[in-house]
Amino acid sequence: MTCMTAARTSAPADRPQLGLRERKKIKTREAIREATYALIEEQGYEATTIEQIAERAEVSPSTVFRYFPTKEDIVLTDEYDPLLLAELRERPADEPWLESLRYVLRKAVGFGAHEDPRVTRLRTTLMTEVPAVRSRMMESMSATGDLLAAAIAERTGRDPESLEVRVFAMSLIGGLMEATRHWVKGGFSEDFGDLVDRALTVFERGLTS
Q1: Hey, how many other C-beta atoms are within 10 angstroms of the C-beta on 48?
Q2: Engineering a disulfide at 148: which of 1, 49, 74, 169 sits with its beta carbon 3.0 to 4.6 angstroms away?
Q3: What is the spatial distance between Cα 153 and Cα 168, in angstroms, rounded to a whole number?
Q4: Tens-place pLDDT, residues 137-148
Q5: Calpha distance 37→28 (Å, rounded)
Q6: Cβ count near 49 (within 10 Å)
Q7: SS3 string of the chain?
């Protein structure tokens, strides 16, 4: 999920081997992201321009825009929604729905276990505190909701466009976003995986005393 970007910044180790062209694309995307993070650390988000990012990444501004339509997308975009939803679809058909979600989201959190905490915290802070990034994230959450609603519909036999499925999907995404905000506000002192588990427990049990 897009809001799970906070916990994962590179491909999982068990990802299938990609062709040369796709590897080059990934390398370019990573160079652009690394240049962006470095510049933001040096001078802040607002002061960082696409032209500066392109120069630092040794690509043209048009290349940056080809990979990321906006500066905000550099922070938000990842390749994992389809991978995680594929994992969700592979769970046993008779497995309780929330148990399947727990499994997939724990795996998503695990993807970032060996990443540079500095980068993870920077990106997560930008996602929750910079208005332009937060606004763009709200737009992207709708697309993630479409993918999640489709997966829910497949499992439950419901219409992906039904109100019930859409409410469930978007409520889940909103809950995960709140877990991310809580993580940032707490100074990253808590385990993010535990916060995700707590968010899912609310869906499972409601507000318990």
Answers
A1: 21
A2: 169
A3: 11
A4: 888 888 888 888
A5: 14
A6: 13
A7: CHHHHHHCCCCCCCCCCCCHHHHHHHHHHHHHHHHHHHHHHHHCCCCCCHHHHHHHHCCCHHHHHHHCCCHHHHHHCCCHHHHHHHHHHCCCCCCCHHHHHHHHHHHHHHHCCCCCHHHHHHHHHHHHHCHHHHHHHHHHHHHHHHHHHHHHHHHHCCCCCCHHHHHHHHHHHHHHHHHHHHHHHCCCCCCHHHHHHHHHHHHHHCCCC
Instruction: Please report where in the chains the tokens 């916990």 appear, as a residue.
Output: 7
Confidence (pLDDT) at 85? 78
- Distance in Å from the first CA to the final CA of the chain: 29
Contact 59, 32 (CB under 8 A): yes
For residue 174, what are the contacts with CB-CB under 8 A and spacing of at least 6? 141
* 159 Cβ contact partners less than 8 Å away, ≥ 6 residues apart: 153, 165
- Express each pLDDT in 68-114 by its tens digit: 999 999 998 766 667 777 888 888 888 888 888 888 888 877 765 55
Class of residue 175 by CB neighbours under 10 A (exposed 0-12, middle 13-18, buried 19+):
middle
